[in-house]
Amino acid sequence: MTARMKITFKLFATLTDYLPAEARRSNQVELEVDPAAPITRIIEPYGLPPKLVHLVLVNGKYIDPERRASTTLVEGDVLAIWPPIAGG
Fold this sequence. Notes:
Elements: E1 5-11, E2 28-33, H1 39-43, E3 55-58, E4 61-62, E5 78-82
């Protein structure tokens, strides 16, 4: 069995609809993930449309789109995703 680690996964604005129903109020869920899993693999099961995965932050630090498939997390990290914010 592979080692697992706990992270916090947060979705904001319209993306909260992709969380399990019980997690939508707090807009976050605790996940157990494979330490070797990159960001793209962690978010994949949630079915987020790629065009809505706009702002990806790990512990408040922006992760460029080209780095999301190679960036892994460590125990206790917070992965937060925001959709494009419409101005107006």
